[in-house]
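Now for a specimen:

…
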Amino acid sequence: MGGLSPADQGSAFRNAPTGMAVTTTDGVLTGVNPALSSLLGRSPAELHGRSLFDLIHPDDVAAVQETRRGLQAEPSRPARYECRLLRANGSIVPVQVITSWVEATPHGDPTHLIKVIEDITERKALEAELRHQALHDPLTDLPNRVLFGDRLRHALDRGRREHTPTCVLAIDLDDFKAVNDAHGHTVGDRVLIAFAERLRSVLRASDTAARLGGDEFMVACENTEPADAELLAGRLRTAAAEPLVLDQITVSVGLSIGIGYAAGGTDPQAAYERVIREADQAMYAEKTQRRQ
C-alpha cells in the first residue's frame, strides 16, 4: 500500500474482502478489518488489544510462535503459515496467514506487523476429500490396498513394541463371476457394496477392512489371537449367509476366508509379506476344498 495516500490505505484495509489485521511485533491486535471481525464472530472492540495467540488453537500455537521467531530473525521476508483460529462461538476455522514486518517510521509509527488472514475452509475440505479418495475404494468406500498396508504395518509395529499378536483375514467371494455373468456388472457392484456393509457391521473398532480389488477383501486385526480371528470370520460368514435382495433379484454369496498370524514381538518387516501370504494361502485352500 506504499503508493496510496493514508486515506486510500485505510479504505483498502476496511474494504478488503479478506481478513486483515495490524498487530504489535508480539502479536497484540491494534487493528482489524470488518472481514476478519466477521470471520471470527467478534467485534473490532472485542479484538482490539487481544493477543492473536489467544485466538489460535492451542495445538497450533507453538508452530506459529516458531514462525514469528523466523520473521523476527529475517524481517525482510514475509512469513506464510496455516493455523486454526477460534471463533466466538467455539467453532474452529482454518486460515492461511501472510505476515509482513513493517519497520518504524520517522513520523512516529512503531514497528508493527500486517497480517492477511484468509479462510481456507473450502480448500481444507477439498484436500481432505482428495486424501480420502486416494486411500479408499471408490465403490465400497473401504480402505484400499495402500491404506490397508499402512494400517497393517502399524499393527505389526505395535505388536513388536507391546508383544501383541496380529492377524490378517483374506476374504474372497465364491463364484462372484457367475453373479456378474448372470445379472450384469451393475448388480455385481451392488453385491460388493452390500457385502462391504455387512463386513463393516461385524468389525471391531481396531479392525481395518479393505477392498483390494475385484471380490478380494482383507482385514487387519490388531492385538488378535487366531482364535479371536476365527470368531470374527464366523461372524462374517453368518452375516454374509443371508441372501441379498436387490430389487427383484435375490443373490446368495459364499465366502472363502483364510487367516494369517504374526506373534507378538515379531519383526514387522519380516512379518508383513508373510502374514498376507499365509492368509491368502489359507483362503485359497478353503476355496479349493469347497469346490471338491
Remarks:
- The radius of gyration is 29 Å.
- The domain at 135-291 is CATH 3.30.70.270 (Alpha-Beta Plaits).
- The CA atoms of residues 178 and 184 lie 9 Å apart.
